[in-house]
Amino acid sequence: MARKGTDIMALGRLRWVVVFGALAWLSLAARLIEIQVYKHEEYSNRARGQYQRRVELKANRGRVLDRRGNDLAVDIEATSFFAYPDQVQTPARVAAQFAALGGGRAESVERQLRGGKSFVYLARQVVDTDINRMGEVNYAGVFQHAETRRQYPLGGLAGQLIGHTNLDNHGSEGVERAFDAMLRERDGSLLGYVDARGKQVPGRQQQREEPEHGRSMVLTLDAVYQGIIEEELQRAIDESQAEGALGVILDPRSGEILAMANLPLFDPNQSAHSSPDIRRNRAITDAYEPGSTFKVIAAAAVLEDELAGLNDRVFCERGELELANGEVIRDIKPHGDLLFSQVLEKSSNIGLIKFARRLSRPRFYEYIRRFGFATRTGIELPAENSGLLQEVDQWSERSLETIAIGQEIGVTALQLALAYGAIANGGVLMAPRLVVGTVDEDGHFTGRGTPQKVRRVVRREIAARLSEVLVGVVANGTGQRARIAGVAVAGKTGTAQRAAADGSGYDPDASIASFAGFLPAKNPQYVCVVMVENPQIDGWGGHVAAPAFRRVMERILRLPGGILVEPAVRPPSVEALAVPDLREMTRSVAIFQAEMRGMLVVFSGEGEVVVSQSPEPGMQGRIKRIECKLGYREARGGWELRQARLMEQIPERGTSGI
What we know:
The chain is of the alpha+beta class and about 650 residues long. It is about 35% helix and about 25% strand.
């Protein structure tokens, strides 16, 4: 019986072994089925992750260059730091190290690390110089990865025009935004094999997706011209205690934008610390009443329709004219009879109104639109303003008269420059041109379009008569402070009130002083518009804007490879030629200025610029030779250093940029 009991117990244990064994095999089979069938892809990916690595191949956003090839916007390598706060053991120490970046960064970093989030960025796009100040960052839970940062080598030069990118290197404003699709890059990747230590196995690549670099863009902008006009606008602001200033330089023959300045300047490298008002490109986004610079449009309409000639006379009412609604228009100085040309020279509101009255309202409105006002120029930049002009059926009794003298209408600086360009080039309105072409990663240049004529606005002979009148404005009238020795300058001054912020009328303490002109008058190559906002001292266009125009153009004319300056309206005799001021000029610029006047330059000494000369500047007579002593400039900063760097890129005469 005992033996039989033992056998039964053994048989029971065997059965349990079989059952457990079967269950184990079933579990194993189920696990195998799960791994091989249901989770095959997951475990395959885990396995591949142990011997494969995907490496990001960074691409670069396209560069932005000026017409001479100077870099205006480039990509540079940077590093971004991020953290998993729950893994960071010493938040205060981490924050203290990031304090080297300034701007209250320590407090910000510590607040982020203690904020309860699972992932935070501690600093984005930190450049090497800042990393060197910080020192090595080696803390648990803090990591870093490579990124690309947009850099603007010339700082605030043309900052509002160029714009800036965001942290993801996508265009946010200006050229960067307008042409983002063309400039934007696309990163690639490389799938390769690694060994047990995680190092790349040479020669074994499974998949490669090439990065696509953005196309670089060449602008019509000239960084040297841009630097000059920005400096001179700042000088005008300082001298007149103004709030700001605008400037545009363009080629009237092609519509190419050579410079577009907005002051105060905006540095795209510091976009996060700037206000929207500073970043705005006011030369295209803000419309102003142009004042007397707009009188040339009414004059063009009257001459084109043969309603008056240059020698027609008009009585200017001794300085006061009552309009149909009872309002009184006044001239700055009272005048009696004036010729048509003298009306513009003296900037007589009354004389111009009397001539403009010969136009019908619809006809005048048509001419205003024909010159490109009240419509966008098509410059391809974001937020362009079309200006302000009511439909003719909404005009009041006084609208024709007030619009003729530049009131009751809003224009942008660019619109005004293009309108003067139409007069300068013989009567054709040109579309603005900002981009010359693009360059691919292999350096192949592709042109982008050609100069585009919008329409003819006046006949060539009418444009020539207007140019003659505008030369008289500078030679004999309100624009005399824009005169340049040896060059026939055509232009017009303007002083206009600004609307009150609440829309209740004009602000008595706000004005725009402006000058619009072109040169040389017989073969214009430059149009320049200068607007000074709210000058507090001597705030007339002829006193503030005209001198700024003159200084800008004089400096541009001094550049080597510059325009061939035409003779003055009356070619001066040899005896009347004055010795130019060559001091502070480089050797090549001094030679250029002397040759332009038929004089020889002899140098002595060593240095980079002329420090003294004989004969003295301004001396007249039959002078054929100027002796110059070379030396070195004193220490310079800011604008002067930047401008010196750009000047080094200017080719000698007979060569050209891009």
